[in-house]
């Protein structure tokens, strides 16, 4: 099977028969935000269910036109050193290789790549590779976009080969939703898995950063693609934003975490949905998101709850680590300014806060629990 791609509401209407109201609403959205999906993923949607979660992931919703949000909520422009090359954290280089995906997520935080005339991805990565060669602190490189697996296999092979010739690059990561959106990209191209196998070695692995957002995406076909990648020597982990109406029920997240771990895919990050343009309908307040994740973990083994709940902020990856009746606790898991890494900060609860800037005036630890830093405490009774 080679899924056909749809780019217009006309094509969608021919496949699933929309009501006039649905069609009109979707066409209004696509005047601002583009649309892309394929036959395979459409087949996973229950069109009788108005609230089907996979429908919410890929089908335009008039709510996307609500005001608010930013085109670049994590200020990636501030860390762009060359076209297509970002360097935010010392050890990590990021190459934007493509502005094409197996589908377009309605909540994409880089939707500017699909709607802006200014190209941020590059076809010729020579300058980016030269930058990585000249920065020996870069030990891992993330290939992103768009979806790098949308590239032709020979081009991806050339990029992987050149990266593997750089001694200080030990890990290559590929950010891809292709196992969920179009597993046939992997199943129908044995050359792809041969290339990946060649450059994922015992000493230097390739990691695939999968993007499963809902357990219904983990189909038998998708798992066959995952097995091909495992046999090619890739380590597969998963990251997903917490999305209102998609995976914002604890039971849904529990099922996602468990199915991933059963298949040998390690949950890696759960992201607070970024305040990108058009994303308001997908945002759940930070404290509610935190509680959803905590509830979801209750029925999970340790292997299924290795993900960290992260806010991917302009200044770094901020982990939400705890909450009391009156306060929420956060720490820098990673930061552009290395002096901030592991720094703990505390805010008074704000049940409406959806992003860090919604919190005001951090409090000192002793204001929360006087004497909480007693040096002789060795155990909790």
Structure write-up:
This protein has 381 residues and is an alpha/beta fold. Helices cover 29% and strands 20% of the residues. It has 14 helices and 14 strands. It has helices spanning 9-16, 20-30, 39-42, 53-58, 112-115, 126-133, 153-164, 178-181, 184-187, 190-199, 220-231, 250-262, 286-297, 365-368, and strands at 5-6, 37-38, 80-82, 85-86, 92-98, 140-145, 171-176, 206-210, 235-242, 266-272, 308-313, 316-323, 327-335, 344-348. The strands form 2 sheets. The chain has a 12-stranded mixed β-sheet with strand order 3-4-5-6-7-8-9-10-11-12-13-14. It has a two-stranded antiparallel ribbon with strand order 1-2. Strand 9 (235-242), helix 12 and strand 10 (266-272) form a beta-alpha-beta unit. Helix 7 (153-164) packs parallel to helix 10 and helix 12 crosses helix 13. The chain starts with a strand and ends in a 13-residue tail after the last helix. The model has no long low-confidence stretch (mean pLDDT 94).
């Amino acid at each position: 099977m080679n899924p056909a791609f749809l780019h217009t509401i006309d094509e969608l209407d021919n496949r699933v028969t929309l009501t006039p109201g649905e069609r009109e609403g979707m066409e209004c959205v696509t005047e601002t935000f583009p649309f892309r999906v394929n036959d395979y993923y459409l087949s996973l949607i229950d069109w009788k269910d108005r609230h089907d979660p996979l429908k919410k992931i890929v089908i335009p919703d008039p709510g996307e036109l609500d005001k608010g949000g930013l085109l670049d909520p994590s200020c990636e422009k501030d860390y762009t050193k060359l076209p297509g090359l970002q360097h935010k954290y010392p050890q990590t280089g990021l190459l934007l290789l493509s502005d094409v995906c197996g589908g377009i997520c309605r909540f994409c935080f880089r939707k500017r790549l699909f709607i802006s005339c200014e190209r941020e991805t590059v076809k010729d990565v020579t300058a980016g590779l030269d930058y990585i060669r000249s920065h020996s602190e870069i030990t891992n490189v993330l290939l992103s976009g768009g979806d790098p697996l949308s590239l032709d296999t020979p081009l991806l092979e050339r990029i992987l080969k050149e990266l593997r010739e750089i001694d200080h690059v030990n890990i290559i990561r590929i950010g891809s939703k292709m196992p969920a959106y179009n597993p046939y990209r992997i199943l129908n191209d044995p050359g792809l898995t041969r290339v990946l196998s060649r450059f994922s070695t015992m000493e230097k692995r390739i990691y695939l950063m999968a993007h499963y957002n809902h357990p219904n995406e983990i189909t038998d076909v998708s798992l066959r693609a995952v097995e091909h990648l495992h046999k090619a020597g890739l380590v597969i982990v998963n990251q997903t934003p917490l999305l209102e109406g998609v995976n914002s029920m604890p039971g849904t997240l529990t099922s996602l975490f468990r199915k991933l771990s059963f298949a040998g895919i390690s949950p890696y990050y759960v992201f607070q949905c970024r305040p990108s343009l058009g994303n308001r309908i997908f945002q759940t307040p930070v404290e509610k998101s935190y509680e959803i994740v905590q509830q979801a973990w209750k029925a999970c083994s340790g292997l299924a709850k290795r993900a960290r709940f992260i806010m991917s902020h302009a200044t770094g990856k901020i982990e939400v680590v705890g909450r009391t009746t009156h306060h929420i606790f956060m720490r820098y898991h990673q930061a552009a300014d290395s002096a901030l890494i592991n720094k703990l900060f505390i805010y008074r609860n704000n049940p409406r806060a959806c992003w860090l800037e919604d919190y005001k005036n951090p409090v000192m630890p002793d204001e929360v629990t006087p004497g909480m830093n007693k040096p002789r405490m060795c155990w909790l009774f």
